[in-house]
Amino acid sequence: MTNAPIPPASGFNLLRLDAAAMPDALDDLAGILHACVNDGAAVSFILPFGFEDASAFWRDSILPQVASGATILLAARDNADGRLVGTIQLGIDTPANQPHRADLKKLLVHPRARRRGIARALITQLENVARACGRSMITLDTRTGDVAEPLYRAMGYEVAGIIPDYSLDVASTRLDSTTVLFKRLNVK
Ligand SMILES: CC(C)(COP(=O)(O)OP(=O)(O)OC[C@H]1O[C@@H](n2cnc3c(N)ncnc32)[C@H](O)[C@@H]1OP(=O)(O)O)[C@@H](O)C(=O)NCCC(=O)NCCS
Prior knowledge:
Blueprint: E1 6-9, E2 12-17, H1 22-38, H2 51-68, E3 71-78, E4 84-91, E5 101-109, H3 118-132, E6 137-143, H4 148-154, E7 158-168, E8 175-184
Parallel strand pairs: 5-6
Antiparallel strand pairs: 1-2, 2-3, 3-4, 4-5, 6-8, 7-8
Coenzyme A binds near residues 41, 114 and 119.
């Protein structure tokens, strides 16, 4: 499945981006990550975080993972202007003893495109892709108390536990907790 349109939703479409499609998508992907981090998102980075830092993440870290098949990259495209406004990753490079598991990573929706159901649609499509890969267990972690946490719980993710002092706040020396969640998927 390469750049194949995935069922349209309200005002946006979901795509799977392969390595060949990523160079053309880099500016939009970098714009999403740059905006989210500078808006305070806890997604591995700290300020200052420039557009080039965001570009480098997609180009140097994620593109090789997508090319090798270790990561599956999905994105949401806004029908109004054709720009990518959301993204999510499925990490399937799990160890030999975890062939049934995958990681949900880097769910990001541009601040200008929020509360339109894009994150919910991306998670649902990610789960479809995971099932198609034979993965029956999704795991993730998210900063404790962020808006993503109740979203995941509403979508059937269960809390495994909370790890205190897990990561630095994006803009200060405060250490934040992370909540580890999982969901079992039915795989036929
Ligand atoms: C978390 C995030 C992905 C949500 O994206 P989104 O596209 O706005 O989410 P949706 O529109 O699909 O929202 C689905 C539901 O989540 C909840 N929700 C989402 N954003 C919320 C907010 N700011 N406040 C309260 N509830 C919220 C609501 O229940 C919402 O349903 P509703 O709009 O029908 O009430 C987005 O805010 C984001 O990119 N945040 C920064 C990055 C981040 O923290 N990612 C998670 C890392 S694990």
